[in-house]
Amino acid sequence: MAWDEDFDRWFRRWWRRPGFDFEYVERMFDDMFREMFETMPKNLYREERLPDGSVVRRMGPFVYGYSMTLGPDGKPVIREFGNVKPSRRPTPFGVSKSSLEVKEEREPLIDVISDDSTIRVIAEVPGVDKKDIKLSCSERTLTISVDTEKRKYYKEVELPAEVDPKISKAKYVNGVLEIVLTKVKAKKPTGEPIKIE
Question: What kind of fold does domain 64-183 have according to CATH?
Answer without folding.
Answer: Immunoglobulin-like (2.60.40)
